[in-house]
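pls design
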């Protein structure tokens, strides 16, 4: 199983980025997807979830209204659209696929928000 996160980069405050998480080795439709991030010196935090069955979404307060999680099961890919980015969004972003006790991680993609 591999999760390949991409789409990170450097952006100015107020800018946008779209992260992708391409999954291989499992059928993504059977897994919930969680995006985590880890800022320098901080613990990893979960910021958004999309369910496997009905696509229910959840957002941490820190990103609510600015980030949108989505999935394309046909492409085995999940996304995180990030808008109105702030310097405090600077972090390594990881995608995670979960099903019961099963859990798989991607390698992370760096997002830097700076003027």
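designed seq:
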């Amino acid at each position: 199983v591999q999760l390949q996160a991409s789409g990170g980069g450097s952006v100015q405050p107020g800018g946008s980025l779209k992260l992708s998480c391409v999954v291989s080795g499992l059928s993504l439709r059977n897994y919930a997807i969680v995006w985590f991030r880890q800022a320098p010196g901080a613990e990893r935090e979960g910021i958004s979830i999309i369910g496997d069955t009905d696509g229910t979404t959840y957002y941490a307060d820190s990103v609510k209204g600015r980030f949108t999680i989505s999935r394309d099961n046909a492409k085995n890919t999940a996304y995180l659209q990030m808008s109105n980015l702030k310097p405090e969004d600077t972090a390594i972003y990881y995608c995670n696929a979960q099903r019961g006790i099963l859990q798989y991680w991607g390698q992370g993609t760096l997002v830097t928000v700076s003027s």
